[in-house]
């Protein structure tokens, strides 16, 4: 398998030859389009206070690790793989950790209900509290988050360390600068 960055081929997997915008040609039997991803920022009030963290890089990970050292509680918004792992690590550090997800079960888009139940039990056994079917309405606090508002109910946390780990598919157009032939 070979990775190529540059040209953006259109999603036409029946083609056997790709040409990038630089003129370079590639032959293929199968085509995988990996458009990448970027961190999503939480919409709404309070998303930019001092103890709201976004995990996009190794540096962000170090910041979360150091800033969580004195935390008593953490709220992780987003239940993807990275969010679940961050929640598990924080809970194992004896930080009261709550994972807020929109779906009715973890990884519902990927796993069967039985597999989701297994992972929910796995993380719950490690101290992660999972709040399902919840949407964050706002983060409250003047200089730091003191409360996370979920729809109609209020969840209050003491000195929370907050990490948002959602991702959006890579943006950009496919096919504008690349030509494919059979």
Structure characterization notes:
With 182 residues, this protein is α/β, with parallel strands linked by helices. It has two domains: 1-37 and 170-182, no CATH class; 41-165, FAD/NAD(P)-binding domain, CATH 3.50.50. It has three helices and 13 strands. It has helices at 58-67, 81-92, 113-125; strands at residues 17-19, 25-27, 37-39, 52-54, 73-77, 96-100, 128-131, 136-140, 147-150, 153-156, 160-164, 167-169, 179-181. The chain has a five-stranded parallel sheet. The chain has a three-stranded antiparallel sheet with strand order 2-1-13, with no helix packed on it. A three-stranded antiparallel sheet has the order 8-9-10, with no helix packed on it. The longest helix has 13 residues, at 113-125. The protein is globular, with a radius of gyration of 20 Å. Mean pLDDT is 76; it is low at 171-182.
CATH C-level name of the largest domain: Alpha Beta
CATH homologous superfamily of the largest domain? FAD/NAD(P)-binding domain
Terminal CA distance? 20 Å
Determine the mean pLDDT.
76
Overall helicity = 10-25%
Overall shape: it is: globular
- Low-confidence segments: 171-182
Named CATH architecture of the largest domain: 3-Layer(bba) Sandwich
- Main sheet makeup: 5 strands, parallel
β content, as a range?
25-35%
How are helices and strands ordered from N to C?
EEEEHEHEHEEEEEEE
């Amino acid at each position: 398998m070979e990775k190529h960055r540059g040209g953006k081929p259109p999603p036409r997997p029946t083609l056997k030859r790709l040409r990038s915008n630089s003129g370079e040609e590639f032959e293929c039997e199968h085509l995988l389009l990996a458009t990448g991803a970027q961190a999503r920022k939480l919409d709404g009030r309070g998303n930019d206070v001092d103890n709201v963290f976004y995990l996009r890089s190794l540096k962000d990970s170090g910041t979360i690790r150091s800033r969580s050292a004195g935390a008593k509680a953490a709220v992780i918004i987003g239940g993807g793989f990275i969010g679940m792992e961050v929640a598990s690590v924080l809970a194992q550090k004896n930080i009261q950790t709550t994972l807020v997800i929109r779906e009715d079960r973890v990884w519902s888009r990927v796993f069967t209900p039985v597999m989701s139940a297994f992972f929910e039990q796995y993380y719950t056994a490690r101290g992660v509290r999972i709040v399902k079917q919840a949407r964050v309405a706002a983060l409250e606090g003047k200089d730091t988050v003191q409360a996370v508002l979920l729809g109609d109910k209020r969840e209050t946390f003491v000195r929370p360390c907050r990490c948002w780990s959602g991702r959006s598919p890579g943006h950009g157009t496919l096919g504008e600068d690349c030509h494919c032939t059979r």
